[in-house]
Amino acid sequence: MDTVVQWNIRGFRSNFEELKLLLNRSQSAVVALQECRLGEGQVPPRGYTLLLPQGGSSGGEAALLIRNGTRFSEIDLRTGLHAAAATISLEKTLTVCSLYLPPNSQVSKLSLAELFEQLPKPFLVPGDFNAQSPAWGDSRRDGRGRMLEEFTDENDFIILNSGEQTFVHSAYHSTSAIDLAVASPSIAAECSWAAHSDLCGSDHFPIFLTFTSNFSSNVNTTSFNFKKADWNRFGELCKLSLDDSVADIEQFTSKLLDAARSSIHFHKGTKNKTRVPWFTQECRQALRERKKAQRKYFKTPSFENFNWDAEGANKLHEVLPNLGEDLHRRGEGAGRKRETAMCRLRVGHTWLTQSYLLKNEEQPFCYACDSLYTVRHILIECLDFQDTRRKYFSVTYLYRLFREVNPSPIVDYLKDLGVYGNI
User: Fold this and answer.
1) Its pTM surpasses 0.70
2) pLDDT for 316-348, tens place per residue?
3) With contact defined as beta carbons under 8 Å apart, do 320 and 346 qualify?
């Protein structure tokens, strides 16, 4: 059975290793990704081809990964929405379109209709719709959810969701179902929908769309090994068999394949499994601990339980390993404003990097570095700030910055960047 995975990855680069691990375990034929934040020259995981939007959409917010050996034809979409689509040949042929609708963007039934009209049927549209409705398992209904209900009803499209929650909102300790899979009626009965049990480093669960045996891919069947072909014999056989007696395309294809089978060796095609050689026993243990912390959070949603008991993901442990150290030891006499700013930087929660939660906006992103805009990125990683940073300090680890560098150069660096007032 073939599987299509949909996932709001929340940064292709930042979750690249998690993606490779997911591919290694699922061996999916197609992966529909949203919120990729892809830059130019991005390399896909081994064994997969990366498709980006070719039409009016931009920013790399939606993408498709297609397993090598799977026949496909890319579709050039004419739309302002974030969408990437291809017609893909499994046992049957279907169109898969990855779609991302940002929460604050204006989306109408007309824009969706223009997109869906360009998709050859049967089609499957997995994506992050940012639409809430009890019709697919959410506890509330918003304007976009109401619009999407009307759109699917008017066009007889099927939403495959089973009612499971797909998104975890860490700021409000709530869950919702905003990742949907819309299908044309002819394939809806042959596809099952299930959410993964692990967030895999994102705040959206990966979703598995599994087709029945009728959609089974033939990637593993025998195929021609062209490196061991006898092309001279193949040419001779073609001259003998492909003459004026060939009446139609089916007969032509049959004779051509007979010539190929007689002159070209076969090899057993196998799925090009995505390698993860770094996945050691220590990684397995860390993964188990993360799942344990995740279950604890879902059982008792709270700020303390959201990754706070896992030291590997704990910002406090990262920037200040010795929790007994006096946080204000190097800030004595510096003034309340500077002490407050330094504490916010150590914890990793500043107005500059976290205000998007209060404003209900997308998380700030540094497109120059293809990375999320975090305290670590501003203080240590950003390439655009590198020359300015060297004037004040040269450490490359966040915990060393707060342990070894006096607050004054850090504050002066932020003032030089013009961001100190927004800490």
Assistant:
1) no
2) 444 444 434 444 344 444 577 888 888 888 878
3) yes
